[in-house]
Amino acid sequence: MRSILVVNPKGGCGKTTIATNLATYYSVWGMSTALVDLDPQQSSMDWVKARPDSENPIQGFNGLTGKIYPEEGTERVIYDCPARTDSAKVARLIKLVDVVIIPVMPSAIDMRVAAKFIADIVGKVRANNSHAILGVVANRAQKNYHSYAALLDFLKALEVPFVGTIRNSQNYVKAADTGVGIFEMPIAEVKPDMKEWEPIINWVEGKRVLK
Fold first, then answer.
1. Cα separation values, 209 from 51, 99, 159, 160, 206, Å
2. Helix or strand or coil: residue 196?
3. What is the pTM of this model?
4. pLDDT value, residue 209
5. DSSP tally for the chain: helices H, then strands E
6. Cα separation of 111 and 95, whole Å?
7. Which segments cross the bilayer (predicted)?
8. In this predicted structure, what is the pLDDT of residue 152?
9. Residue, of 32 and 94, whose pLDDT is higher
């Protein structure tokens, strides 16, 4: 089993978008996949409940009820962490996972929050001798905007790898509304989005680490 934690204490940075779409990638490839929702809003669980019967199943767990360990035989587990999660709780969660994805939006506020959070978490990972790898994803980015260039400079200066960019696409809104992921939508509509996921998934699976 390979487990992934999607976390950032800043709200609205796209944690659920990343968690749900990553879950569908694995589901499409026939892997037994679980999505554990640790957020009181339970957006990931609502998404799971909205999934069409025609799509491959994804196990959904309300992590607030105490069950955060999926059934034996589950191949991939994604944890959707809430905003305002204190660093002590994050440190405990990191002990459970192999990969930590930190989404960051191209805004000054988001970058400041991310810098403090990442510095704290990197220190805790090292102190606990955790095997988890950490990486940052630029989310809802417009590559032709000055803010994106500033975000890239910021991310590349951090102590963790910058592993990819997810553009600001309406396809993610459509996917969220219908309980699917972009990997389950018509390829002609989502090809640019799917292309952006390649380096992220390669990194999550340990195939390549970008610098």
1. 32, 12, 13, 10, 7
2. helix
3. 0.88
4. 42
5. 7, 7
6. 25
7. none
8. 75
9. 32
The predicted-structure confidence for 39-52, as pLDDT tens digits, reads as follows 888 999 999 999 99
Q: Residue length, the chain?
A: 211
Residue 211 placed within a domain:
no
Using one digit for the tens of pLDDT, what is the confidence trace for 142-199? 766 677 777 777 777 777 788 898 988 999 999 999 999 999 999 999 999 999 999 9
Task: Flag whether 166 is in a domain.
Answer: yes
Looking at residue 16, its amino acid is T
- Amino acid 39 reads D
| 33 compared with 143, residue with greater pLDDT | 33
What is the C-alpha to C-alpha distance for residues 62 and 46, in angstroms, rounded to an integer? 10
Helix axes 146-156, 108-127, angle to 10 degrees: 20
Rounded to whole angstroms, the Cα distance separating 189 from 151 reads: 27
Q: Which has more confidence, 148 or 132?
A: 132
Residue 85 lies in a domain: yes
Q: Give the distance from CA 149 to its chain's centroid.
A: 22
Is residue 209 in some structural domain? no
Strand order in the sheet with 133-141: 59-62, 33-37, 76-80, 2-6, 99-104, 133-141, 162-167
Residue 116, domain extent: 2-204
The Cα 44–Cα 81 span in angstroms is 10
Number of domain units in the chain: 1
